[in-house]
TrEMBL record:
Species for this entry: Hymenobacter fastidiosus
Keywords of the record: Signal
Annotated region described as Disordered, given as residue ranges: 24-57
Low complexity: bias regions: 39-54
Lineage of producing organism: Bacteria, Pseudomonadati, Bacteroidota, Cytophagia, Cytophagales
Protein name, UniProt field: Uncharacterized protein
Highest taxon of source: Bacteria
Signal peptide: 1-17
């Protein structure tokens, strides 16, 4: 049976109207000028490195210790206990090494805000007044030892002046525990933390050393383990 031409034309008009009111996915069409189908980019977007981090984004993922040092320096200068606490290893904690007398004093810090140094009972954030200002860390294969004959008011006895980063080999082999006074933890815990250190940051004006370790696992972050506040040429 042939469909009369007038009926075929009417059916075609109805079909066009339906196409105008619905989008290709069957949903009502969007407002004029908008498209319900977005074109794919010519190249796939690069993955965001930050999205792959498994720990707090404050922690750096660099292969050197420079990123962690910048965070530590900023936290000390800004008296920011929150950032400093995030740099501390949750397993080994933070240990402060001082020598107020003949023997070392080692303190495991439970809360950075309440810790007081043996020197004049100052808070930890008082270090901001003693920090050197260095544009960047100078990486060395081996950190220098102090020569007390070179000591000046601006240098604790080092042949060069500045902020240096190097291996923590010398600190790991340091036998500081016989006769040391240990607070907030045990000597065994302190030795375990000492053995974890990998990199050291040295500031030559004071001789202060900051020892870092990598947290366990792939993509581990740098953690602050020890702060050595002993001045190398103190009598």
């Amino acid at each position: 049976m042939r469909v009369p031409p007038i009926l075929a034309a009417a059916a075609f008009a109805l079909l066009l109207a339906a196409c105008d009111t619905k989008s290709p996915n069957g949903m009502p069409d969007q407002s004029p000028g908008q498209s319900s189908v977005q074109a794919l980019p010519a190249t796939a977007p690069r993955p965001d490195p930050a999205a792959a981090r498994t720990e707090n984004p404050v922690m750096p993922a660099d292969t050197s210790v420079a990123g962690a040092w910048l965070l530590l320096e900023g936290a000390l200068r800004g008296h920011d206990a929150g950032v400093l606490n995030q740099l501390i290893d949750p397993e080994f904690g933070l240990w402060i090494l001082e020598q107020p007398g003949a023997m070392p004093l080692v303190t495991r810090v439970a809360a950075v805000g309440t810790f007081r140094r043996a020197y004049q009972n100052l808070p930890l954030f008082s270090l901001d007044k003693q920090l050197m200002t260095c544009p960047q860390l100078r990486v060395m294969q081996q950190l220098p030892d102090a020569d007390c004959g070179r000591q000046t008011r601006q240098n604790a006895g080092f042949a060069q002046s500045g902020c240096f980063a190097g291996p923590a080999t010398a600190f790991r082999s340091l036998d500081l525990w016989p006769g040391a006074t240990v607070k907030g933890g045990t000597a065994a815990q302190g030795k375990a933390a000492q053995g974890r250190t990998v990199r050291t940051v040295l500031q030559t004006r004071t001789g202060f050393r900051f020892h870092f370790a990598k947290s366990a696992g792939v993509g581990g972050r740098w953690r602050l383990i020890f702060i050595d506040l002993r001045e190398p040429c103190m009598a």
